[in-house]
Write a structure and sequence with these properties.
Number of strands: 7
CATH class of the largest domain: Alpha Beta
CATH topology of the largest domain: Protein Transport Mog1p, Chain A
Shape: globular
Helix content: 25-40%
Largest sheet: 7 strands, antiparallel
Structural class: alpha+beta
Order of helices and strands: HHHEEEHEEEEH
Length: about 280
């Protein structure tokens, strides 16, 4: 009768001892973890702060340096072409240059000329010329100016090649006009007549020069030669590029030969009857 009671008491005592052992065992890792955390936080504050400062210094010193843009300014857009060149390209409008509006003339500018010459019963010859200049600065956020100019140059060429309604399109590289240049020409039918459009895009360092030049024979006059117009536009582009380099203290504007007479054939009807000189490129 007494043995079961004693056994029960022994079992209960063993269970209590086992419970205490398990509780202590479970507490050991917690203590170790707490001790470890306490040791790290207590002894590493200064070192961590020093390491953080070193990391910031290393990051600042490792920041890439952006090369400064080569050209800092642009020439006056209505002065980039010589009087002789303007007389060749827009004979009846050489002195009628109209400067485009710009909020930052050091970074962008443009000028346009219109020429219309009446040849009596033979009709009239129309010419329109536009020069645009765009300069890109270097910055940490956007990159180097010449790389930005390269991207814009490619975009301008692509737009000139993608005009709606263009016929007989042709693109050719142009030598001697900055670092890279392309001439794009095509025919465009409008209600006033058949227009021959030339666009020459040139890049010199961080500046992009775009020449738009078109011509048409109106009211029965013969259409101008596309080859002659293209040569004239290329000449204008080279002269404009030279004006950019000269404005920044390098190079000098070369004297180029005159274009073919067919490129500069005059025209002179009332300006009110002239077709719109707006660019024909797709927006």
């Amino acid at each position: 009768m007494h043995q079961p009671a004693q056994r029960d008491q022994s079992d209960q005592q063993r269970a209590k001892r086992l419970s205490r052992v398990l509780v202590c065992a479970a507490a050991v890792p917690v203590m170790l973890i707490a001790a470890g955390c306490s040791s790290d936080s207590g002894s590493g504050d200064g070192a961590n702060k020093e390491n953080a400062g070193s990391d910031l210094t290393a990051t600042a010193s490792a920041a890439p340096t952006v090369q400064a843009a080569a050209y800092k300014k642009l020439p006056e857009p209505c002065q980039v072409l010589s009087k002789k060149t303007l007389t060749d390209l827009v004979p009846k409008g050489a002195t009628s240059g109209k400067e485009g509006t710009s909020s930052d003339t050091a970074s962008r500018g443009s000028c346009s000329w219109t020429s219309l010459d009446n040849n009596g019963v033979k009709g009239s010859q129309f010419r329109w010329l536009n020069v645009s200049l765009l300069r890109f600065d270097s910055s940490q956020t956007q990159g180097e100016g010449d790389k930005l100019a390269q991207a814009y140059y490619a975009k301008q060429v692509q737009e000139a090649q993608s005009v709606t309604g263009a016929k007989n399109a042709k693109s050719v590289p142009v030598a001697g006009a900055g670092d890279e240049a392309t001439a794009v020409r095509y025919d465009l039918k409008k209600k006033e007549g058949a227009f021959k459009q030339q666009t020459v895009v040139a890049r010199v360092e961080n500046v992009v020069v775009t020449i738009d030049y078109n011509g048409a024979g109106l009211a029965g006059e013969k259409a101008p030669s596309a080859d002659a117009l293209t040569k004239a536009a290329e000449k204008a582009a080279k002269e404009a590029v030279a004006a950019v380099t000269t404005a920044n203290g390098t190079g000098s504007a070369p004297v180029s030969p005159s274009p073919s007479p067919s490129a500069s054939k005059s025209a002179s009807k009332a300006a009110s009857t002239a077709p719109s000189p707006s660019a024909t490129k797709k927006s």
